[in-house]
Amino acid sequence: MYFVFYWVVKYTLGLALKLVFRPWSRGRKNLPRSGPVILASNHLSFSDHFFGPLPLPRKVVFLAKSEYFTGTGLKGLASKAFFSGVGQIPIDRTGGEASERALHSGLRVLAGGNVLGIYPEGTRSPDGRLYRGRTGVARLALESRAPVVPCAMINTFEFLPPGSHQPRPKYRPGVIFGPPMEFSRYYGKETDRDALRAVTDEIMAEIGKLSGQEYVNIYAKQAKEELKAKEESAD
């Protein structure tokens, strides 16, 4: 049922998005036609969930934050129904055992020969810059031995900024898919922190080349906390 719902949503909502917002894409052929693939993307806007997978002929299963599935009221029910229906997997981002459960969920998706979408930054960029990647993407790549296709969302920060519910049609959302990356030279080092960091940094560097974003070597979560502290101090 979820498989059918995914394609119904993609072809109905997707057609509407194409007609209204005229999204563009490059490099779609870089995504392998079959087999497990990790789609690693920057994360600028809530709209990335729609415009990233839109041009691809394969279903993309994202690890989505659990808040999308736990809301209350009509809005919460609608969110849960939508994200469940399109096959997204809720993850708890508190770390520790929760992170391990998310990892195993991702590995199950890949073991089934599917496309797994992941945002290595862990959260949306607060200012449009590219932040340090978390090493979960490297563990997934090394343990599954699946290729990683770097993906860059373009203009979505301006199209739908954080906290905004009103799209800005003058900005055309875009997405660029880079050539697949393989990390066979690191196989067997799934628990080596230096190897995981090296793989993650290599993936983020490729995303940065595609997106043209300024890179900041701290986690996006830390940047958000610093920004919030500055705003509270100003108030």
Walkthrough of the structure:
There is one protein chain. The chain is α/β, with parallel strands linked by helices. It has 9 helices and 9 strands. It has helices at residues 2-21, 48-51, 67-70, 73-85, 97-111, 136-144, 156-159, 193-211, 220-234; strands at residues 24-26, 37-41, 60-65, 89-91, 115-118, 130-131, 148-154, 174-177, 215-216. It has a 7-stranded mixed β-sheet. Strands 6-9 form a two-stranded parallel ribbon. The radius of gyration is 17 Å and the shape is globular.
Please report the distance between the alpha carbons of the first and last residues. 49 Å
Order of helices and strands: HEEHEHHEHEEHEHEHEH
Instruction: Determine the structural class based on helices, strands and strand pairing.
Output: alpha/beta
Task: Give a short account of the largest sheet.
Answer: 7 strands, mixed
Q: Using the alpha-carbon principal axes, give the shape.
A: globular
Q: So how many helices?
A: 9
**Spatial arrangement of strands, main beta sheet:** 1-8-7-2-5-3-4
Kindly state the percentage of residues in helix: 40-55%
List low-confidence stretches: none
Number of β-strand runs: 9
What fraction of the residues are assigned to beta strands by DSSP? 15-25%
Q: Report mean pLDDT, rounded to a whole number.
A: 89
Radius of gyration: 17 Å
